[in-house]
């Protein structure tokens, strides 16, 4: 083997990984915005969740990416922990499709049918069709074209790796190295380390099959490496779980436990039974033998552990129990996870749009509840002349400002990466919603700060004004409840318009009453100025509520 073979191998690996990444990104572009609806339907039962995991992984050819998607969905609130278990199991089964496709490249025969069953024969055609669709198509056709092109590049990379590794069959040191992998512990460690470095079980299995196709190794040398690869693929989910909720971390624990249990069971089976010989007897194609073993490993482990999904969840909870989070007393994002693991891991980003949108919506719900609480407390503070509430309102207002800043930064970063036009448009809507909520918080703070003037100037309000302040609080509570409903479920803009009009009518009526009191000398100059400013804040709150309603319902209609 020469240095040029090494160069070719590196190029083959690069093509293989790029092909998978391209396929995943294209799927995100064409179907990312629909994933939330698919999930709500497909995760209603363990079997449906299993099928979902299988289907997604079979398409994007990466169990790691699917598991990362599940971790993100749990963290953002799209999926419960028990739902994620079946999706992860399905992902492990779905990833075997890659091995089967790659094993077809080892088919030999002179008939046209046999030759056409080999992906290396027809994948170039897919690549040609894919680039044609990408160049002349629009939106969805371009996405499909990229999927086809990605698969073609993947197969070309596999073929390149296989040819580059052929000379290794004549290298004694390499053969001795792989002979050592007959030791179960060494084989499992080697497979886990290789996959952890590449961060793709499909790629590591592909390399193993490329070695087999080149005649370098057989199934006895490959079987324990194969089992270890299932453990190594968990590294991607581990990285993605950094900084997430405890349930998201538990999802990663379940994924790791699933593959460790399967590896232990099958390692024992291989040591005490003629399992390897049985797999060798099914087909002379070593690449197919690896695919068979990989499939049986994942299907058997799934059948074994699927009935114990609840127990796996309980085990993960015991390993990582609930506790009072240190961050409870500090300002933090509850649902938005750090983007660094997603940006750096080199995996496909399937589902990231659905994850991001739901996480943002949940953070905005938190923000709305805080704003609502501050508005209510502020009116109470003015009505009672209570400066004691000022500190609580100010602290919560600082939290609202923090959320506005962090959510806006996150949306800005996502908009740069977003490839789906509809998701991009909706994130822009959420960006505007965030800004309007921050302004509502500002007006609540303004109202509460009037208590300082009330105390300093010894201002007192009439029973009529106190009643009006209570009415303002009540209608603001109703309006912000509508905002919460619109943010989560969409809604009818007419309800928002009606309550905003009610706020405008109340403002006009209360101003007229104030003018009447001024003309009769029933209110002080300071009291008149303060009440006028408070009415302005009240009206502005209504304006921002209407802005939110128009933005959200408009995006739903679109």
Question: Would you kindly provide a written description of the structure presented here, covering whatever features stand out?
Answer:
The protein has 558 residues and is mostly helical. It folds into 2 domains: 3-320, no CATH class; 351-557, Phosphate transport system protein phou homolog 2, domain 2 (Methane Monooxygenase Hydroxylase, Chain G, domain 1, Up-down Bundle). It is built from 25 helices and no strands. The longest helix is centred in the C-terminal third of the chain and has 37 residues, at 421-457. It is elongated.
Which range does the strand content fall in?
A: under 5%
What structural class should be given to the helix and strand makeup?
A: mainly alpha
Low-confidence stretches: 339-348
SSE order: HHHHHHHHHHHHHHHHHHHHHHHHH
Cα-to-Cα separation, first versus last residue: 59 Å
Number of strands: 0
Total of helices: 25
- What can be said about the biggest beta sheet? none
> Helicity, in percent?
over 70%
Overall number of domains: 2
- Rg measurement, Å: 30 Å
* Shape assignment: elongated
The residue-averaged pLDDT reads 79
Characteristic terms for this protein:
elongated; 2 domains; 81% helix; mainly alpha; single chain; 558 residues; 25 helices; Methane Monooxygenase Hydroxylase, Chain G, domain 1
What is the compact description of this entry?
With 558 residues, this protein is an all-alpha fold. It has two domains: 318 residues, no CATH class; 207 residues, Methane Monooxygenase Hydroxylase, Chain G, domain 1 (Up-down Bundle), CATH 1.20.58.
């Amino acid at each position: 083997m020469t240095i040029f073979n090494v160069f070719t191998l590196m190029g083959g690996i690069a093509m293989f990984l790029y092909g998978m990444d391209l396929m995943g990104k294209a799927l995100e572009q064409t179907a990312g915005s629909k994933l939330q609806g698919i999930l709500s339907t497909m995760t209603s039962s363990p079997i449906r969740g299993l099928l979902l995991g299988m289907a997604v992984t079979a398409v994007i050819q990466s169990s790691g990416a699917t598991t990362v998607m599940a971790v993100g969905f749990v963290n953002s609130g799209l999926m419960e922990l028990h739902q994620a278990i079946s999706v992860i199991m399905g992902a492990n089964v779905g990833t075997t499709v890659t091995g089967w496709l790659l094993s077809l490249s080892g088919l030999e025969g002179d008939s046209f049918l046999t030759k056409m069953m080999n992906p290396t024969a027809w994948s170039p055609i897919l690549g040609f069709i894919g680039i044609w669709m990408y160049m002349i198509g629009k939106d969805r056709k371009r996405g499909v074209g990229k999927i086809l092109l990605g698969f073609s590049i993947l197969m070309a990379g596999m073929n390149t790796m296989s040819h580059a590794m052929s000379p290794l069959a004549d290298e004694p040191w390499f053969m001795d190295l792989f002979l050592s992998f007959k030791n179960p512990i060494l084989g499992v460690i080697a497979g886990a380390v290789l996959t952890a470095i590449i961060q793709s079980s499909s790629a590591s299995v592909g390399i193993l099959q490329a070695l087999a196709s080149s005649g370098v190794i057989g199934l006895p040398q490959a079987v324990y490496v194969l089992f270890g690869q299932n453990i190594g693929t968990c590294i991607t989910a581990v990285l993605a779980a950094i900084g997430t909720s405890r349930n998201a971390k538990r999802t990663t624990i379940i994924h790791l436990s699933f593959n460790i249990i399967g590896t232990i069971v099958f390692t024992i089976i291989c040591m005490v039974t003629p399992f390897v010989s049985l797999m060798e007897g099914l087909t002379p194609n070593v690449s197919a033998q690896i695919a068979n073993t990989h499939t049986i490993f994942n299907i058997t482990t799934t059948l074994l552990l699927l009935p114990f999904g609840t127990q796996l969840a309980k085990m993960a909870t015991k390993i990582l129990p609930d506790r009072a989070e240190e961050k409870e007393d500090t300002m933090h994002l509850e649902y938005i996870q750090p983007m660094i693991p997603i940006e750096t891991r080199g995996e496909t980003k399937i589902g990231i749009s659905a994850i991001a949108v739901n996480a943002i919506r949940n953070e905005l719900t938190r923000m709305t509840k805080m704003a609502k609480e501050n508005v209510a407390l502020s009116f109470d503070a003015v009505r009672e002349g209570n400066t004691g509430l000022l500190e609580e309102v100010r602290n919560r207002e600082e939290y609202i400002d923090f959320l506005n800043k962090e959510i806006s930064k996150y949306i800005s970063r996502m908009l740069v990466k977003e490839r789906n036009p509809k998701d991009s448009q909706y994130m822009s809507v959420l960006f505007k919603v965030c800004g309007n909520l921050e302004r509502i918080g500002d007006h609540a703070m303004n109202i509460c700060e009037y208590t300082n003037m009330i105390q300093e100037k010894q201002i007192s309000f009439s029973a009529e004004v106190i009643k009006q302040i209570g009415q303002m609080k009540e209608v603001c509570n109703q309006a912000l409840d509508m905002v919460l409903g619109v943010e989560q479920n969409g809604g009818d803009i007419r309800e928002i318009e009606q309550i905003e009009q009610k706020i405008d009518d109340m403002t006009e009526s209360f101003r007229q009453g104030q003018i009447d009191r001024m003309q009769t000398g029933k209110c002080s100059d300071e009291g008149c100025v303060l009440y006028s400013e408070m009415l302005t804040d009240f009206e502005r709150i209504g304006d921002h509520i209407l802005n939110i309603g128009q933005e959200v319902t408009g995006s739903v209609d679109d």
